[in-house]
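ingest -> validate -> predict -> emit
validate: passed (alphabet ok, no gaps, 154 aa)
predict: started
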Amino acid sequence: MDSIEIKQIRKIDEEPSLWKLLLSADPSKELIEQYLPASKIYVALLNRKIVGEYVLTTISSDVLELKNIAVDENYQHQGIGKQLILDAIHKAKEEGVKKIEVGTGKDTFQQSLYQKCGFQIIGIDKDFFKKHYKEEIIENGVTVTDMIRLAINL
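emit:
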């Protein structure tokens, strides 16, 4: 598939139409509701339609965490996820942040995407998904159990 260039990524307040995307990246509504109030939500717009989102949460004055990133299933694998990650890096630099962290499933498409954007593995949270999620998370036919923690220094 060809890449789609997103010309507008902007900050928005929480809105009901985002929940489908938020839950596609993190299937726990309870966990999302915990971090969303202290976070900034950004959306990618294509012809005024939201096609992707990411959520940045302040961990400390120097560190942000990319808590949630998702692309509408009709627009996946067209470069939008990478554009969202690069936009998050740009916004963090503008804010004077020194590092962005992110957690994702081990050996997933997302892990390799973060690494292609300059993130490096900083740790593994063993059995994270087994401990924090009621339902199994399965990607490419494999049950995801461990969370890989990655970071990029800015």
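The longest helix spans residues 80-94.
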